[in-house]
Write a structure and sequence with these properties.
Length: 228
């Protein structure tokens, strides 16, 4: 199932000689925000789970005061409103705590970051990390949306909601950061087990992984799956 390729010590955010493939140790994360663009919108919640040997061993969750009004459409989707975050720390306090949490649990370098449409989350984390520290947010990223598209090309939709219903994890997506991070981890593990079970049998094909640099960020690499 794992390709023979490895990520050398120069891989962004990666451990030396980390194998390409479904990771056993990683951090699954999700952000809630006030909008789509990090230069004009703010983070309202960070949720993440640390995974060791495919099992959750630690969690991080924090509501964040974006210091700007939360749009009604966002509140309707997430349930997060101005009153809920009024007494919560701003990102200037929350992000350093989250970065410390990421690094304190890391072994031989920061572990892969798993997310659903993870590019969105990485854009916000990189923007805020650069703004507050002057440094980028390096990451070796795994996107469950990309994996779903590779494994299930016959499916029309690959939202997190579609995956959790497909795998009978839940009927609805809560649109809260920690819950979505946990469901993302569950979806990744379901797809890993299915690949292990069916790879090379019938029409399923063989899993091939590649390392793809992010288009606009040299500090981020994506592990991408294809069936051949």
């Amino acid at each position: 199932m794992l390709a023979s390729d490895t990520i050398g010590s120069g891989g962004a955010g990666s451990a030396p000689n980390a194998p390409l493939g479904f990771p056993a140790d990683y951090v699954a994360l999700d952000l809630e925000t006030t909008g789509f663009y990090p230069n004009s919108c703010g983070i309202t919640e960070i949720g993440a789970v640390r995974v060791r040997g495919h099992e959750i061993v630690d969690r991080f969750q924090q509501l964040v005061n974006p210091l700007t009004p939360i749009p009604a459409a966002v509140t309707k989707l997430t349930g997060i409103d101005d009153a809920l975050v009024e007494d919560c720390p701003a990102i200037e306090e929350t992000l350093p705590r989250f970065l410390d949490w990421l690094d304190e649990g890391a072994q031989d370098g920061r572990e892969p970051i798993v997310g659903h449409n993870v590019t969105f989350d990485l854009h916000f984390l990189d923007y805020e990390t650069r703004r507050l520290t002057g440094e980028p947010f390096p990451a070796l990223a795994v996107d469950t949306m990309q994996i779903s598209r590779a494994l299930y090309p016959e499916e029309r939709h690959h939202r997190l909601l579609d995956l959790i219903r497909r795998f009978k994890i839940a009927d609805n997506e809560e649109h809260r950061a920690l819950s979505d991070a946990i469901q993302t981890q569950q979806c990744l593990e379901r797809m890993r087990r299915q690949t292990d079970r069916h790879e090379g049998r019938g029409s399923f094909g063989h899993a091939r992984w590649s390392l793809v640099p992010a288009k606009r960020n040299p500090h981020v690499n994506f592990q991408r799956l294809a069936l051949v």
